[in-house]
Amino acid sequence: MEQKNPMLEIKNLKVAFRTYGGKVHAVRDVSMYVNEGECVAVVGESGCGKSVTAKSVIGLNPKSSIEGGEIFFQGEDLLKYSEKQMQTIRGDKISMIFQDPMTSLNPTMTVGKQIAESLIKHQNVSKENAMKEAVEFLRLVGIANPEKRVKEYPDSLSGGMRQRVMIAMAMCCHPALLIADEPTTALDVTVQAQILELMQDLQKRFNTAIILITHDLGVVANMAERVLVFYAGRIVENGPTRSVFYQPRHPYTWGLLKSMPKLSADSKEELISIEGAPPDLFAPPKGCAFAARCEYAMEICREHQPPFVDVGDNHCAACWLNMKDVPDENRPDWMKSDHVSLEEVK
Amino acid sequence: MKKYVLKRIAIAVVTILVLVTIIFLLVRLLPGDPFTSEKTNEAIKAKMMAYYGMDKPLIEQWFTYIKNLLHGDLGVSLKYPGRTVNDTIAQTFPYSASLGIRSIVLALAVGLVLGTFAAQNAGKVMDYVCVLIAIVGVSMPDFIIGTLLQLIFAVKLRVLPAGQWTSWDCKILPVVALSLYTLSLITRLMRSSMMEVINQDYIMTARAKGLSKFEIIWRHEIRNAILPIVTTMGPLTAAVLTGTFVLEKIYAVPGMGKFYVQSINDLDYTMVLGMTTFYGIFLVTANLIVDILYGVIDPRIKLADGGGGKKRKAKPAAAGKEA
Fold this sequence. Notes:
The structure holds two protein chains of two kinds.
Chain A: E1 8-19, E2 22-34, E3 39-43, H1 50-58, E4 66-73, E5 76-77, H2 83-89, E6 94-97, H3 111-123, H4 127-140, H5 146-149, H6 159-171, E7 177-181, H7 189-206, E8 209-214, H8 217-223, E9 226-231, E10 234-240, H9 241-246, H10 251-258, H11 299-303, E11 309-310, E12 316-317
Parallel strand pairs in A: 3-8, 3-9, 6-7, 7-8
Antiparallel strand pairs in A: 1-2, 1-4, 4-5, 9-10, 10-12, 11-12
Helix pairs in contact in A: 3-4, 3-6, 4-6, 6-7
Chain B: H1 2-29, H2 42-51, H3 58-70, H4 85-120, H5 125-139, H6 142-156, H7 168-198, H8 201-208, H9 213-225, H10 227-250, H11 256-266, H12 269-297
Helix pairs in contact in B: 1-12, 4-5, 4-7, 4-10, 5-7, 6-7, 6-10, 7-9, 7-10, 8-9, 10-11, 10-12, 11-12
């Protein structure tokens, strides 16, 4: 599938952290792209490399952890940038908001100052003007009485308001890309919806692209045009949200979708979960990382990494079951050849 | 705020009253009395006792003392005729205070820098050097440091005077010797507090904003890391000021320490009581100031209402989840 100059393009990114226990291969060969103004969701369970990939984009992982790959942002390879150069990108062209608004704001600085800080740093505005802009941004993110709030400390704001402040802080320099690392996980359900709505609103207003990292498939369905499914440091499936949700082409994605709780009235069903645990990233398995938990695993799955193939419509997946040579009876019903096109094995 | 401060002052007054009473009783429990010596006989002693009002019941003496204390009068020395406690303090305390304050300032300045520096370079050689300095400083008693510095700089190298409190160069060795313990304590505290702050989420936020390392340390890390240090400044001031006693002797500084120790040996009741009370007021005030300062630095601590009124020991990590 051809893409005309994606704004962000990650190619073969590999990230590993040295720890006392050995080397953790957190991201193992991830390639992805984000177009201008679009919202891409990244889903997967904890420790699958979603956040690490995102932090690599904004340069918040230690430099030594990058083992290989390229990250092109507006045509420039960010991995070749020095720390100083990255500082001019961070908060200005790419910004990030975090999971827990309770701990993500400095408790000893007023929210106004914390917002003004980025403006002063990147936009070359005076302190007074920055504070005025901070008030406007607080108003924009839906905080009532911003003139008063701007002088308050994070302590006197609720979780939802703090996340609004975080968003104001991230958006105040009109970044081209916003990385939202589980922005609603720590919030009440009602507040979640408001925050997502706010993000969508600002996305349209400033034409900002969003990488939305989340566990919540419901959020993905609402927000994202495309979805990337991470498993054990790799992308196992990606494609347009609709296509991935209705025709998953990887057993892991299917498992994720199946394990979503349903809201049927008198359902006493137990929640479905995927048996087992993700593999040890100190020593990632040779074949498909999901093979050990996959009920359709074949011999080849344990031996060889499945290729990442396009199954049509810009929808790609890394699973041997998508290959034409695999006998149909090995495939689960939802993947049978009569409703999906299969790939030729090289 | 006003209510809180008033309440704290009231508590401080009670604290001092209790302190005075305890010392008042304790000195009298010591064997002997101020007037016993080879030259005095019973008749003279009785006369002396009567002269100083010590023949009256203890409770009456106590009331008299408190009454005088409220007028700012700490009494006269029982040992040296014509010398009042007030005068003695007025003459000697400035030396002790000058030594103490210089030491605290030095300890704070160097300790905060070393601690920050060590935390920023955690696990590297410079970190170990700082930690080593801190461990040596905490574990060596001041009389050893004092004499050691004298030996090196005054006797062997002959670059600094060994004692006195006159020109500026006399002051270097005693100030350094006195500050070393506090300096080490502050270094270690600042290091661990800083390490905790560095791993906080809001530091990640600050980095994500594109701030430089220096901006992050200066604007976001130090202010949060310094809170536990502020709490300890009250007791540390106490440690430094009482620590002057030994070093005053070693460096021949004409401070209060010498008289304090002497008056205990002499069983000079009024002198002991007076100086203890003076220190008591001094330290309670220091703690009070620290408590109020705490509220200024950390907005999470509301000093407004009386509810409990106690300072909350806020670790930077425990950013309240109450909202």
